[in-house]
Amino acid sequence: MMEGELVDAEIVVPTHLSFKKTQAYEKYPKGQSRGRWKHLKQILQADLNDPSSYISIESPPSTQPCKRICDVTGFEAPYVDPRTNLRYANAQVFKTLRSLSPHQVHHYLSIRNAAPLLK
Amino acid sequence: MPFVSKTRRQTDYNRFPPSVPIVIDNGASYFRIGWAGETEPRVVFRNIVQRPRHKATGETVTIVGDQDPAMMKFFDCTRSGPRSAFDSNVVYQFEIMEYILDFAFDRLGASGSSIDHPILITECVCNPVYSRSKMAELLFDTYGVPAVAFGVDAAFSYKYNQRHGKCQKDGIVICPGFTTTHTIPFVEGEPVYKGSCRTNIGGYHVTDYLKQLLSLKYPFHSSIFTWEKAEELKLEHCYIAPDYVSEVRKFQEGTKEAEEKTRYWQLPWIPPPVEAPPSEEEIARKAAIREKQGQRLREMAEAKRSSKINEMENELHSLHFLVKQLDQVEEDDIPSFLSDTGYTSRQELESTVSKVTQALRKARGDPKDEPDEFEENIDSNEKYPLLNVPDNMLTPEQIKDKKKQLFLKTTTEGRLRARQKRNEEELEKERRNQLEEERRRENPEFYLEEMRAQYKEVLERVEQKKRLKTNGSNTNGNQKSGNVGRGERLSAAKRERMRLLTTAAFDRGKGEDTFGAKDEDWQLYKLMSKDNDDDDERPDSDEAELARLSSRLQEIDPTFEQKVEGELGQASGEAPGVRPLTEEDYKIVIGVERFRCPEILFHPNLVGIDQVGLDEMAGASIRRLPHEDKELEERLTSSILMTGGCSLVQGMKERLECGIRMIRPCGSTINVVQAEDPVLDAWRGASAFAADLNFLKNAFTKKDYYEKGEDWLRGYQIQYNTL
Q: Which spans does this entry mark as compositional bias, Acidic residues (chain B) (predicted)?
């Protein structure tokens, strides 16, 4: 039985709903839920020949020069640390940068999708 | 707060005849459902589902949207986080979609045997046909919906604002949403999807960026930066800088303006309990205990000492007795007599006696007699009588003695000289100290300054040396042991050693082996040996100097603090823990982050998305239109509407206008307006659209769907101009 407060708050969606022709528990018996759905990439395969499709309206890459900012502070970053590949603004940031753990370095890089992929 | 959930169950469902359509804005972040013709959606909630286990019953239950955290204590959420039906902005998980629709219809008050109302539901621009057909099937088959229509949220928002005179029939809608941002050009009041653009960045990315940056900046508090907290901070503090570079420079230079723009968030901080100084009584008690323990130890030591003395006295006694006995024994019988005792000769016995006597004296704590003292006084001639006698006047025995005496004399003299030198040095030191003291008295401040400078210089020198020795990587104190890691370059000494080793290893078979022919060859091994590089033949003079300076400074400078090795410079992200935490450590500073995070909407490459940003998208959309038409372009840019949750960020309009002006030809009219309500206008537009009498012409039934097939559904598009 559900606790009184829970019933009052009606948090849980009822399992049986009169307005449905097929109930969820009939459609998705336990343990069947995950991994049955096509992912977006697979879904898009069907529309490849469409003149205006989900893929075709994707924006082009930018023509403006790429803005380089310091990974740690957000300042303009004229330098790149060859060891960690992080961008940095000045010597002070460089000091901080060198005190980062490899994990933190990886995190900073992965934010801008530049972390080395381990396969 | 522009985003508010409304989940109260509606009671008037049965009041609406089956002809009234239900309108759903199915956005990636929020789900809104209500009745056609009304101005507000009835039910609004976050478009997420959780399937935790109910603790009491063990059942897996479905919870939709954001719920009161207090209620979540009844559930075990460890194995299921909130899940969304969306991948990017496309619905792909229809099981989750079904739970969401269940909840939505339930809260709208549905009670019959099916949902007997036409439905208008929004989808993304150019929704893949798979997603559209699955959604249609779900609505038809599971809920028994009579007719369905699909439309685009941004388009509805544009049409709604067009009706309210905010924009023209030709124009562009820019819609920064939750996971994606779209631009759609409108020509003659109809959206032109061929000309639309989608960049895969949105409010989700802004919040996520903020969350990651803050948790990296404050690793110690990373657990408080939850998704919800980051979202809250974003809505409250983020703004778009008119020009990122000049704005960030203000912060870099620490101007007053930047200071004013910095926001602080003080986390609750409780100072660590200050240890109360122990009371008098306590001190006395402790002292007594210590005293008692000391007493006991002293007694024990005393007992040990006396027993030892006793033992030695006994030994001495027996030895004396032995000697006395020995006196009475005949000379010839001595060896046989002594063989029982373990001594071989009288001399040995005597030396043992004198040793024991000395040890005893020492143990008793008698003053040590210092033979050196009076040795000096004795004339060397008396002490070393043979030294001045020529060799040829001596017997071989005496020559031996003479050599011994010579050796004794030189060592004694050497000792004397060393002592004298020590004394002199001490005197010199005293003199120098006095001199310094005088200088200090003359001008204490100047002297202190000088000392400090000196200290700093020597410290630097010492550290430099240390760094050189341990391969130069210790700038950060990260690697205490000087081992070679992470592509470190070796120190010069190590490099040399490696070179020697490799040449030795590969120097084989070239001609004959002449190694060892010369003595120098063997030096090689010395050079190769591992401890070669940390040879400290002489004690480091710099280090000694450093020690002297620091002790001197400690004496005279109350503010002096000895630099601890490996101490880091002030680093904001440094995890506290080594030093006691202060209130400062619990203060979250949000400065550059305020505009750095939303900046990714204009420069997606900051988070590694290589696509054009908001401003450039407008230009890209215009370029994608099938025919080049300068007049149309002019009309388009003079009616740009921003809608979608992200357009609420402060400074968006100005920045957009400025950005679009940069990419358009000189003199173009650029006019950017914000939608009346960027969050709700899509639903309102859809509601108005569904309320129109022509709505059913745009919808399709289950029969249509199964007769016309997938290709038809792919090309399906409603006519927005009915609005």
A: 369-379
- Cα separation, B203 vs B645, in Å, equals 8
What percentage of chain B carries pLDDT values higher than 70?
A: 88
**Alpha-carbon gap: B527 to the closest alpha carbon of chain A (Å):** 31
Contact B384, B413 (CB under 8 A): no
| CA–CA min distance A31, chain B (Å) | 11
Res B568: pLDDT:
39
d(CA B82, CA B72) in angstroms, rounded, equals 12
Residues of A in contact with B60 (CB under 8 A): 30
Nearest chain A Cα distance for residue B303, angstroms: 57
Q: Between chains, do B476 and A27 touch, taking CB under 8 Å as contact?
A: no
Per-residue confidence (pLDDT) for residue B511, from 0 to 100: 63
Do B1-48+84-166+676-723 and B170-263+591-674 share a fold? Answer: yes
Predicted local distance difference test score (pLDDT) of residue B374: 46
Inspect the interface and report whether the beta carbons of B607 and A75 lie closer than 8 Å.
no
The whole-number pLDDT of residue B377 equals: 53
Contacts of A106 in chain B (CB under 8 A): none
Tell me the H-state helices in B384-443. Answer: 396-442
Residues of B whose CB is below 8 A from A108 = 216
Cβ contacts of A89 on chain B, cutoff 8 Å: 252
* Chain A residues 59-78 with CB within 8 Å of chain B: 59-64, 66-67, 69, 72-76
Partner B contacted by A14 (CB < 8 A): yes
Query: What's the CA gap between B197 and B207, in Å, rounded?
Result: 22
- Domains in chain B: boundaries: 1-48+84-166+676-723, 170-263+591-674, 281-369
Among B94, B248, B609, the residue with its CB nearest the CB of A37 is B94
The correct CATH number of B1-48+84-166+676-723 out of 3.30.420.40, 3.30.360.10, 3.40.50.300, 1.10.150.20 is: 3.30.420.40
CA distance B198 to chain A (A): 5
Interface test with B, best of A62, A93, A94 (most B CBs within 10 A): A62
- Pairs from B460-466 (Cβ < 8 Å, separation ≥ 24): B461/B542, B462/B540, B462/B542, B462/B543, B462/B546, B465/B540, B465/B542
Q: Please give the ipTM for the structure prediction.
A: 0.92
Judge whether residue B706 has pLDDT over 50.
Answer: yes
Residue B344's contacts (CB-CB under 8 Å, 6 or more residues apart) are B335, B338
Q: Does A26 touch chain B (CB under 8 A)?
A: no
State which residues of chain A have pLDDT below 50. Answer: none
pLDDT of residue B329: 75
Query: Which pLDDT score, from 0 to 100, does residue B627 have?
Result: 81
Residues 6+ apart with CB under 8 A from B159: B189, B685, B688, B689, B720, B723
b/e code A76-93 from CB counts within 10 Å (16+ = b): bbebebeebebbbbeeeb
Q: What type of residue is B664? A: R
Topology of the domain comprising B170-263+591-674: Nucleotidyltransferase; domain 5 (3.30.420)
B464-512 pLDDT tens trace:
877 766 544 444 444 444 444 444 456 677 777 888 888 777 766 556 6
Token reading at B217: 């900046």
H or E element at residue B151: strand B147-152
Token look-up 């040890």 returns: B359
Of A9 and B298, the one with more pLDDT: B298
Rounded Cα gap, residues B570 and B679, in angstroms = 43
For residue A98, which residues of chain B lie inside 8 Å, CB to CB? 475-476, 478
Q: Report helix angle B652-663 to B614-624, nearest 10.
A: 50
**Interchain CB distance below 8 Å, A111 and B213:** yes
A57/B125 touch (CB, cutoff 8 Å), yes or no: yes
